[in-house]
Amino acid sequence: MLSNGRYNTSNTKNKYIKNYSFSHRYNGQQCDVVMTSLIGHLMDIEFPPATKSWKNFPPSQLFEAQIIKDVKGDLIPIAENLRKEARGAKALIIWTDNDREGENIGSEVADVCKQSNARLEVRRARFSVLQAREIQQAWQNLGYLDMRQVAAVDARSELDLRIGAAYTRFQTLKLQRRFSELASQVISFGTCQFPTLGFVVDRWKRVNNFVPEDFWKIDVSVQRDGITAKFNWSRGHLFDQQFALVLYERCVDDPMATVLSVDRRPKSKWAPLPLTTVEMQKVGSRMLRMSSDRIMNVAEALYQQGIISYPRTETDVFADGFDLHTLIRAQTGDDRWGAYAQSLVDGGKFRRPRNGKHDDQAHPPIHPVRMAPNLTGDDKRLFDFITRRFLACCSHDAKGHETVVEIGIAEEVFTAKGLMIIERNYLDVYPFENWNASNIPVFTEGEQFQPTELQMNSGRTTGPSLLTEADLIGLMEKSGIGTDATIHEHIKKLLDREYMNKEGPKGDQFCPSVLGMALIDAYDNMDIDLPLSKPFLRGQLEANLKAICEGRKTKDDVVRECVGMFADAFRVAEAQGGLLEDAVAKYFGHPPDMEMEEEDLEPVRQVRKCPKCGSPMILRSTNGGKKIIGCSGYPHCKEAVFFPEFANSVTALEETCGKCSTPLDPVRMLDFHFPRNSVPPSIPNRYQTCIFCDDELKELFEIHRGPRVGAAQQAPVEAGTNGRQAGRQASIAPAPRNNRRQGERSPSRPPAPRANRRRAHSPAVKNETPPFAPFDGGDGQGRNCLCGIPAVRRTVRKEGNNCGREFYGCSKGQMEDGRCDFFEWADEPPRNAQQPRNAQQSQYQSYGGSPATDQNSPPCYCGEPGVKRTVRKEGNNCGREFYACSKPQSAGDRCNYFQWADEVLSGGGADMARYQQQINNNHGTGDEVKCGCGLIATMKTSNKDNENKGRQFWTCVKSGARCGFFQWVDEAPGGGGPSGGGGGYGGGGGGGAGPGVTCFACGQSGHFATSCPDRGGGGSSSGGSRGGRGGGKARGGGSKRGKGRGKK
Fold first, then answer.
1. Where's the Topo IA-type catalytic domain (predicted)?
2. Where would I find the H helices in 54-146?
C-alpha cells in the first residue's frame, strides 16, 4: 500500500520474517524505507534463575522477587534484525495494533532499536483498517507512543506473573504430594481464570441445589372471529393453593369480565448497536454455535486478509466523519444482501447507527471492509454475521403497533397484548433477531363479556440452567474480568486445564470438574477478606489499569496496591492450606495419599507442543521411576517419548532448540546426567541437547524418527534426505492406559478431569531400527562399517582434546544386537579394512577398523575372541589399546573381561595361533564350570576378613544382571588344585600375573586390576591370570583358559 507494489525483499535469520525495501516521502523528502514484521511480544518477563526451584524458593517471596525483562530466546534473531536495520536509520515508525498491547510491543521495539542507535526518532502510526486510504492517512498523521498504555500493560504483566506463579506453586506443591492423580499436573492459578471458574461453580451449585415448588394460577382466554386472546393474571402465580382456590372460586361465582382499558401505541424494535468484540463473541457463540476462541481466531484471519476491520475493540460508536456509505456500497454486489445494501445507499433507507456508551478511542466498531463472496466454512459464517450486523445497524428500527387490553373479573386483573408489525426494516437483513406479530380481537373500553375459558392451572418452578458461553462472557464483561481481547483466552484455558467442561444436550453449557469445584470451595472456606473466586479483586485491578491509561495512577502505585491485596490473601491461604487438601479429598472421593518426600517433587515444564493434539508435552516420571516426555492430554492423546533407565536424571532447560523451535512451539533443550560408561565416548556424562534432533542420542535411546515400519514393510528413503531432517519428529510409543478409580458418577457430582484419574504406566514396547538412512544419510564418502552398511558420521561432544572432532561409527542403534565396533576419525584417510565374511565375524573387529581375527585376539570370559578398543578418555591411558568382551554393552550376558593389549604382547612371547588352537580344542568339552546363566564361570578370591580370606570361588561372569551362582573351588566336584602349570599364553605360569604386568587400579606390579586386593571384592585369581595364563592341568581336567577350571 505504501510502496504501490514496487519493493525489494530480503530474508532474515528468522524464516517467518522478511524485510521489504522501497522509497516513500517522509517529512517532505524522498526516503529509503525498510518495513519488517514481528511475532507478537518481543520481550518477556521472568524471575531470575535463583527463584527457579519450586522446592527451595518459597512461593511467598515471589511477590517481592526481582523481575527481569529481556528478549525471548527464540526471538533473538528478530531483535538482531531490528538492531541491524536501526543502526543506519533516522526514524523508527511503529505500525503495531492500535491498542494497549500494540503500544507495549511498539515500546519493546523502540528499546531494542535504540540499543544500536540511541538518536533514533520514534513515531507511531495509528490505523484500524488495512485499506490503502487508511494506511496513507496514518503515514501522514504520525504520532508518538502512549507511554501510559505501555505502563498499564507492564503493570498487568508483572501482576499476572507474581500472583500466578506464587499461587500456582503453592497449590501445586500442596496437592502433588498428597494426591497421586495430580502428581504430574501443574495446578495453575490466574487472576482472571479463577473468578471466571467461580461463576461456573456458583451457577452449577444453584442448579444442583435448586428445589422446585408447585404453584397455581388463573388463566383466562377469549375467542372472537377465530382469533384467541390469552389474558395473564396480574398476580402471576401463587404458591398457596388454598388462597389461589378462594380467588378462583370468586371469579367463577362472578365470571363477567369488564374491559378496564385499551391502550394502542406505536411499538419499535431497535436496530442493533455497532458491533464490539464482546458482542461478537456473545452472539456468535449463541447463534453460530462457535466457541469464543474459534470466533476470535477466525476474525483475526479475516482481518489479516483485509476483509474486516480490527476485531478487538470496545467501541460501539461510529465517529461523525466515518465514511459508512462507501462501506455499504462495497457490499451491493453480493447476492445475499446486495439488494438490501443498494436500498440503503440509493433508496433512502439509510440511518446513521445509534451510538452506544463505549468508545476506546482506538478502533471503530467491527465492520466489513470489502466484499468476500468466496469464503467457506466458519470464515463465511462469521463474515456473514458481521456484514449483516453492520447493514442492520445502518438501518431504521422495525416498526409496529401494540395493543394492551386490561380486564377485571371479580376484582382480579388480567392483561393481553397484541402486536401488528408495520415495517420490518433491519429485520429483513438480520435474521439473528425475531419479532413475531400476535393478533388479538378488537375490544372497547367498558365493554363486558363472558370469557371463553376460566381455569385454575398448576405448575412447577424450574431452576436456572447451566451457563452457556454467551452467559459467561456477559458475566465476565459486567464484572470487568479480562478485556475484549482476552475473555476468550481465559475461557479456553479453563477448558484446556480441565477445571471445567462443556456439557448439556447441545454441548454448550459449562460444568465444573471435581478439581475446579474443589479449588473454589477451598478458597471460599478460607478466612480471606476478598474471596479469590469472586470478581472483586480482578475487577479492581482492571479499574486500576484503566486509571493508569488515563493518568490518574502510576504503574508503581497499582503494582504495590494489588500485590499487597493478593499477598495478604496468600498468607491466609498458606496458613489454612489444610482446607485445600480437605476440599480435594471430598470431591476426589478418597482421603489424601501418604505424603511423598519433597525431594521426589519436581516442577513440570513443557518441553514442546504435542504434534498430534497441540497440548503441552511435559517431562515427568512414571510410577516406575523412568522418565518420559508425555502429552498432557493423556489419556485422550497417548503421544509419548520413553527414555531408557540409565537416562533418568534429566531436566528441561529454559534454553530452546534453534532448529526445532517455531514461534508458536518453542522446543526446550534437555540436561542429561548419564552414569559412567552408560553412553558412548562421543557423548559426555553431562550433556545438554535437544532430543528431537540429536540423532546420536535418538539412536542410543532407540527413539523412532518417523512412522514405525515392520520388518516386512520397510519405508523407502527419500533421496537427499539426511537423518537430521528425517528426525525432526520422534515417533511416540503408545502411552499406557489409565487406571481410574471405580464408581459411577452421581448427578450431584461434577465430572472428573482426565488429570484427576489415577494412572498406571506400562513399559514401552521395544523400538525397531529406524527404517531410513541415519544421521547425515551415511558418510557421503563411501565408508562402510564392519557390518557392510554405510557408516554414520558423529561428533565428539565430551570435553577433551578431541571435543568437536568428527568420526565414523556403526549406524546401528547403540542397544541393537549385531552392532559392530567400527571407528575411524573423519579427518584421517579410510583404513580400507576388509569387510567381514559374515555378521558373526564383524563383531570381533576392532574400533580402528582392522580385523581382530580369531588368531590374534585373546578370548573373553564368554569363550569368544575379545575385541580390541582404544581409550578415548583424557588421562594417562588415553590412546592405549585394550581387549574387552565383543558383545554390546547393553547385552545381558556380556562379561566383564578386560586386558591391556600391550600387556598381552609383553606377557612372555606366547604363540597366539597355538593358544587359539587350545581354546578351540577345549571349548564345549564339558570340563568347564558354568554358572546359572549357562556361561563359563569366573574364579575369584575372597578378600573379606574372616576364615575364608584367600579362598577361591566360582561366580557368574556377568558385570550386571548376575544369576547369583556361587561355588567354592575346593568344594567343587572333581577335586584338584586351583593352580595351573606353566606354558601356554602369557608365559607367566601358575596362578600369578606375567612378568612386567602392572595393575591399573593400584599401580602395583604382579597382579591385574580384576584381582586387585584394594578393590574390596574378589578378583580373578587362577591357574593363569589375564596377562599370564597357565595351561596346566587343574582339578583333574584340562584348563580351558589356564584358570584351573575342571569338570562341574
1. 146-570
2. 76-86, 100-114, 132-140
Q: Looking at the domain 277-396, which fold is it?
A: Topoisomerase I; domain 4 (1.10.290)
Print burial letters for 563-600: b (CB count within 10 Å at least 16), e (below 16): bebbbebbeebbebbebbbbbbbebbeeebeeeeeeee
> Which grid coordinates are listed for 1004?
602395583
Alpha-carbon separation of residue 986 from 911, 992, 998 (angstroms): 9, 11, 14
Q: What is the distance between the alpha carbons of residues 703 and 687, in angstroms, rounded to a whole number?
A: 17
> What residue spans define the domains of the chain?
8-145, 154-210+465-525+532-588, 214-270+400-460, 277-396, 604-711+721-739+755-768, 909-1048
* Residue 425 neighbours by CB distance under 10 Å: 20
- From residue 71, alpha-carbon distances to 109, 784, 805 in Å are 10, 46, 33
Least Cα distance to 900 among 1033, 786, 997, 1029 occurs for 997
- Gap between the Cα atoms of 424 and 433, Å rounded: 11
Residues marked active site are found at 310
Between the two ends of the chain, the Cα-to-Cα distance in Å is 93
Give me the residues paired with residue 263 across strands.
404
Task: Output the nine-digit C-alpha cell for 868.
Answer: 580390541
pLDDT score at 958: 54
- What is the residue type of 15? K
Look up residue 371 and give its three cell numbers. 466484499
Identify the three-state secondary structure at position 341.
Answer: helix
Say which residue the cell 478511542 belongs to: 361
Residue from 46, 50, 47, 44 nearest 71 by CA: 44
Give the containing element (helix H, strand E) for 338: helix 338-346
Q: Which three cell numbers stand for residue 121?
A: 526518532
Tell me the C-alpha distance between 572 and 523, whole Å. 10
CATH class of 154-210+465-525+532-588: mainly alpha
Please determine, for residue 1030, whether its predicted confidence score (pLDDT) is greater than 60.
Answer: no
Could you tell me the three cell numbers for 64?
517481592
Q: What is the crossing angle of helices 469-479 and 487-496, to 10°?
A: 120
The share of the chain scoring above pLDDT 90, in percent, equals: 39
Q: 555: which 3 cell numbers?
A: 504503574
- 195 Cβ contact list (under 8 Å, min separation 6): 479, 481, 532, 533, 534, 535, 537, 538
Distance, in Å, from the CA atom of 805 to the CA atom of 86, rounded to the nearest integer, reads: 39
Closest by CA to 170, choosing from 682, 526, 457, 495, is: 526
What secondary structure letter does DSSP report for 339? Answer: H
Does the pLDDT of residue 766 top 80, yes or no? no
Between CA 776 and CA 842, with CA 880 as vertex, the angle to 5 degrees is 50
pLDDT digits (tens, 9 = 90+) for 774-813: 333 334 355 777 776 778 787 776 666 777 788 888 776 6
E strand or H helix that includes residue 267: strand 257-269
Q: Of 147-151, 254-258, 362-366, which gets the smallest average pLDDT?
A: 362-366
8-145: CATH, from 3.30.1330.80, 3.40.50.300, 3.40.50.140, 3.30.450.20? 3.40.50.140
Sole residue written with cell 612371547? 909
Look at 797 and 923; give whichever has higher pLDDT: 797
- Which residue from 838, 818, 823 is spatially nearest to 785, judged by alpha carbons? 823
CATH architecture of the domain covering 214-270+400-460: Distorted Sandwich (2.70)
Q: What is the pLDDT of residues 939-982, one digit of tens each?
A: 777 766 677 777 887 776 654 445 567 777 877 554 433 333 33
What pLDDT does residue 278 have? 93
- Distance (Å, rounded) from C-alpha 952 to C-alpha 266? 115
Integer angstrom CA distances of residue 825 from 253, 654, 773, 885, 920: 114, 34, 20, 23, 35
Residue 926 confidence (pLDDT) above 80? no
pTM of the model: 0.58
Q: Residue 524 and residue 488: Cα distance in Å, rounded?
A: 25
Q: What is the DSSP string of 928-989?
A: S-B-TTSSBPEEEE--SSSTTTT-EEEE--BSSS----EEEGGGSTT---S---S-STTS--
